[in-house]
Amino acid sequence: MDALRKEIDKIIPNVKKELMSSQGIESTKKKILMVYLLVSLGLAYHFEDEIEECLKEGFETIEEMMAGEDNLYTISIIFLVLRTYGHHMSSGN
After folding, report:
1. Beta carbons within 10 angstroms of residue 45's beta carbon
2. What angle separates helix 48-60 from helix 2-20, to the nearest 10 degrees?
3. How far apart are CA 50 and CA 19, in angstroms?
4. What angle do CA 68, 37, 54 make, to 5 degrees?
5. Averaged pLDDT for residues 37-58
6. CA 20 to CA 2: how far, in whole Å?
7. What is the dihedral sign for C-alpha 33, 93, 45, 27?
């Protein structure tokens, strides 16, 4: 268990840096998908502030993010993550 803890401690700064980077709409999509993976792995609690900031940015640019997006998986994950973190939106958007 200590070995796993050490590995997690090594990657935390890199993941935080990635979540806080700002590189446009495609990057925001990737960060939201990363949030989904972190939640699925049970590691999201390490990155609560970074996740909130990332999702705030994503919610503010939702129309631009969804423009031209044809991958249903990506759309559904973005919708799920934003709704899970309290960014309520209609499925008609």
Report:
1. 9
2. 30
3. 6
4. 60
5. 92
6. 28
7. positive
